[in-house]
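Late entry, evening session. Most of the bench is empty. Finally got around to the prediction I had been postponing all week. Sequence below, unchanged from the version circulated by S.P.
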Amino acid sequence: LDKPLSEIPAEAVRIVRGWFDGSYGGFIYRGARFLKNIFPDFPEDFQSELIEFIRKGDEESILFVLSILRNYEGEVFLRPICKEIVCVLPEDDQLLKEVMVALESTGVVTGEFGFAETYERKAKELEDWLVDPDGKVSAFAKKYIDGLQSMSTAERKRAEEEVELRKYRFGE
């Protein structure tokens, strides 16, 4: 079904939207994963369909989109649609935490400092949001980047301690 459905993104999204019963956590691994399999590269026409749901502004439509975004491991191409969500939501909305989770997600990370380096890279990727004319976007970016920097620092410390412990146990 991937091939024929990928040619009709509007219809594919509408069909899968009909499956969403408000169970955000479960839907991430069912319907949302199904759409990710059909649209692995997040094409523009698919993104446009999702933006239409975001612009409705209701919580259920935004949860539907966020469940889909959670399947893309924080890829750079998610930034515009995440920014769209940030613009629609109030600054103190709890769903902004889900936007952060979608952006900070990672695929496979390697090396002792893999997570620390990934968090640092993701923080750099969003630096341009800090000067965005929309105050909600810049406030979100500051909070998100501060969080990533804290996680990077903690992860770097953990990795350094692990390396030292390994050296102690097994020698240089």
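Two things to note before I forget:
The longest helix spans residues 135-170.
The radius of gyration is 18 Å.
Will write this up properly tomorrow.
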